[in-house]
Design goal:
- By secondary structure, the protein is mostly helical.
- The protein has a single domain, classed as Amino acid/polyamine transporter I, CATH 1.20.1740.
- The protein has 18 helices and two strands.
- α1 crosses α5, α3 runs antiparallel to α12 and α6 runs antiparallel to α7.
- The N terminus and C terminus are likely disordered.
């Protein structure tokens, strides 16, 4: 932005956010030419941070922008992962009535944390004259622009976000290959001589490399739509089996005990959480102001996801009661329609791989692209191939990697999805807008305490899952009996492995 004919030096942000030159405006522009039009919350954020004369959404230049429908499709696919198949187990812990209440509360918290992350991004767009930011950018810049005591931690926050995102989503990609291979193996083994799981994983290499060649989220939208279709048909068949086996209400628990709340929270939060894809989706939108708002893309998507989670959890527990398995497909009879469900879910997870993997690609390529400007396209596709091959090789080497990724997910999703967004909102509005009585601060403290609770319980359950897989049988049984808990890895990417 220019002032009195003189142009200010480039900010640190411009060294890692792609620029099209539109951020720098001369003083000949009339004050107030650009107005914020994306709802009360964004206007409030802009007013608080004195950025009224800059419209980041008009300044944004995306080569292949996604529509609201494309973004909603991606969001649904990111949130409707394989963890949905364990919702009946979650309702078994909570009971039918409390399961509905708890799921709504968890959905509100997860959606709110994603919402405030994007809201802070919009406020920082105005303050820094920038049109797009990644999750890591938001963390670093909110510290740099925040109160004095937090400014020195910007780089550390950025590193924490990048490492956590990459570890979680790259691990997710590896486990997804195991899930896909496991579903296909389960079906093929019913009709042919069983083959080792590693063979199926290796066979996925070429298809996954081809999927990795999809250039951007715009062209990945049809893949996500196909994945939603596969998952929808698979869930439809599953719901049919559930609806014909419903038990009387007097045979079911309506309200579980407080001891059963932690495993319920672990299942639902780690199944529903999709914080890593929120900013990539917002950054690639044609109309990013429509991402927020009461009827915005984020609220629409999460409302739909919540209803589907409640429906499957409620009917699944009603159908099988105390016999509900860790994954609801394990309760289905060994019939052709049930086998079709496994194939469809395998295909849905295959299509979802691309969206999870895109998060890893953005992190790695953003750190490398400045070094390979002359042959950027070739270098980028080499990076794509390396990432896919590495994720498949990791799955082949350790097909029981699921519990370890569950531990990473328990740590990272609690920090990334709940605690960090609250921290970022506090420091973004620390000096100008914590609200009457500093209500934002107190609200975020309460939500962060909830996040710490989930982090501790999720970590404990994941460690139990690791012991269940790797510890000697005698020690494992003793540990499980002593804890009095049915250990399950609750990360959404590992629940069907």
């Amino acid at each position: 932005m220019a002032s009195n004919g003189a142009e200010l030096p480039a900010t640190e942000l411009q060294t890692f956010v792609p620029q099209d030159g539109s951020e720098k405006k001369s003083s000949s522009f009339n004050h107030g030419k650009y107005q914020v039009t994306n709802g009360n919350l964004d206007a409030e954020a802009a007013e608080l941070l004195n950025g009224k004369d800059y419209d980041p959404f008009k300044a944004r230049n995306v080569e292949h922008p996604t529509t609201n429908c494309d973004t909603l499709t991606h969001l649904l696919k990111a949130s409707l992962g394989s963890g949905i198949l364990s919702m009946p187990l979650a309702f078994k812990y909570s009971g039918l009535a409390l399961g509905i209440v708890y799921t709504v509360i968890v959905a509100i918290i997860c959606t709110h944390c994603a919402y405030i992350l994007v809201k802070c991004a919009h406020a920082l767009y105005h303050k820094t004259r920038t049109s797009a930011m990644s999750f890591a950018d938001i963390g670093e810049i909110s510290c740099r622009e925040g109160p004095e005591w937090v400014r020195k931690y910007g780089k550390a926050v950025r590193a924490t976000i990048l490492i956590s995102l990459f570890a979680t989503y790259f691990g997710t990609c590896s486990v997804y290959t195991v899930i896909i291979a496991g579903n296909f193996k389960a079906v093929v083994d019913s009709y042919a001589t069983p083959v080792e799981l590693r063979v199926y994983i290796a066979a996925l290499l070429i298809p996954l490399v081809l999927l990795g060649f999809v250039p951007n989220l715009k062209y990945l939208a049809p893949v996500s739509m196909v994945a939603n279709g596969f998952m929808g048909v698979g869930l439809g068949i599953t719901l049919y089996y559930l609806s014909i086996n419903l038990k009387p209400m007097d045979q079911l628990v309506l309200a579980g005990t407080p001891v059963d709340i932690p495993p319920f929270l672990c299942i639902v939060i780690f199944a529903m959480e999709a914080i890593g894809v929120v900013m990539p989706l917002e950054n690639n939108m044609k109309t990013p102001k429509n991402f927020l708002g009461l009827g915005g893309v984020l609220n629409q998507g999460m409302a739909g996801v919540t209803m589907i989670y409640i429906l499957l959890g409620f009917l699944g527990y009603m159908a099988f009661g105390e016999e509900t398995a860790d994954v609801i497909t394990l309760n289905l009879p060994n019939e052709i329609p049930a086998q079709v469900v496994k194939v469809l879910i395998g295909l849905a997870v295959f299509c979802t791989y691309g969206l999870q993997w895109f998060v890893c690609l953005e992190i790695v390529w953003d750190g490398l692209k400045e070094r390979y400007q002359k042959k950027a396209v070739l270098a980028e596709y080499i990076v794509r191939v390396i990432l896919v091959v590495t994720s498949v090789v990791l799955a082949i080497a350790v097909p029981t990697i699921g519990p370890f990724i569950g531990l990473i997910g328990a740590l990272c999703f609690s920090i990334l999805g709940i605690i960090l967004p609250c921290f970022i909102e506090c420091i973004t509005f620390w000096e100008t807008g914590l609200g009457p009585g500093k209500w934002r601060l107190w609200k975020n403290i309460i939500v962060s305490i909830f996040g710490v609770f989930v982090l501790i319980m999720g970590t404990k359950d994941s460690v139990q899952g690791i012991l269940k897989v790797y510890a000697p049988a005698a020690a494992n049984n003793g540990t499980m009996d002593a804890l009095g808990v049915n250990a399950t890895t609750f990360a959404p990417t590992t629940i069907t492995s």
